[in-house]
Design goal:
alpha/beta, Rossmann fold, 12 strands
Length: about 270
């Protein structure tokens, strides 16, 4: 049996939908399970039970303080090994993201998995194309709207969430063909805030990271998440996430979805009514 954790999230839901479309039975695991899903709560390790699961997709715990995230992932790996899971796939972070503040828990978890005795596949996911729009915002300029961007001239090899879900489903469908592989699942082209602005046909106002921090604070974002967003924006701004790769097309069997179209659609949907 295949299990996908984090089943209530958009990524895991997309993986499960892709597996169903391929006629491959799988079960979701969630802290708040719906019908047909199993209860999986990493914060309650004594309750974890992966009995009957042969292949497990461990979707990394949501962004939180490093020690807590590592502890959650560690207990999941230990219980999987205890309960007889034979192959564990893990959604990690692209190697180009090592400068991001959220990188360390992923790298530690990779080491834990590789030492677990199970066979494994590491899916080093690139940054979602949907998230490329996250540091961008709209503001009024007279009667018009313009995009405010802290990303400078930086570009990012972003990836559509649905493509990463399909890549994960390909691995889960044939885990034996992907043993001890680390896939760098980044896009085939790098896009910038200027590309998004050009696609939408609007103007832009570029800001520094200091002003961006002020905007985040004014919008009431938690300090922890402010640091995360500033880290993402700085790494994009300084060009560390622009490297493209071939692993994603290999797992998809086709070229990835255009990340610019995805990011531009997200921004267009966020535009305030004029």
């Amino acid at each position: 049996m295949i299990m996908v954790t984090g089943a209530s999230g958009r990524f895991s839901s997309a993986v499960l939908a892709e597996l169903r479309a391929r006629g491959i039975p799988a079960v979701g695991g969630s802290r708040t399970p719906s019908a047909g899903q199993r209860h999986v709560d990493f914060s309650a390790p004594d309750s974890l039970d992966f009995t009957g699961v042969n292949t497990l997709l461990l979707v990394s715990a949501g962004a939180q303080e490093d020690d807590r995230q590592i502890a959650f992932n560690r207990v999941a790996v230990e219980v999987a090994a205890r309960d007889g899971v034979s192959h564990l796939a893990y959604t990690s972070l692209t190697g180009a993201g090592d400068h991001l503040s959220m990188a360390l828990p992923h790298r530690v978890t990779e080491r834990i998995i590789m030492a677990s005795g199970m066979t494994w596949t590491i899916l080093r996911n690139g940054v979602y194309a949907e998230i490329l729009a996250a540091p961008l915002s709209w503001e009024k300029q007279g009667e018009a709207l313009r995009i405010v961007s802290p990303l400078g001239d930086g570009a990012i090899a972003a990836v559509a969430r649905r493509d990463l879900a399909r890549a994960a489903a390909s691995v889960l469908s044939d885990p034996g063909g992907h043993k001890e592989r680390v896939y760098e699942l980044v896009g085939s082209r790098a896009v910038s805030a200027a590309d998004v602005v050009g696609r939408l046909g609007c103007e832009a106002r570029n800001i520094g990271l200091g002003e961006y921090r002020q905007l985040l604070a004014e919008n009431g974002m938690q300090a922890f998440r402010q640091s995360l967003m500033l880290s993402i924006s700085s790494v994009i701004r300084h060009g560390f996430l622009a490297r493209t790769g071939d692993d994603l097309p290999y797992l998809l069997g086709r070229e990835p979805t255009d990340p610019l179209s995805v990011a531009a659609e997200v921004m267009a949907n966020q535009a305030p009514a004029s």
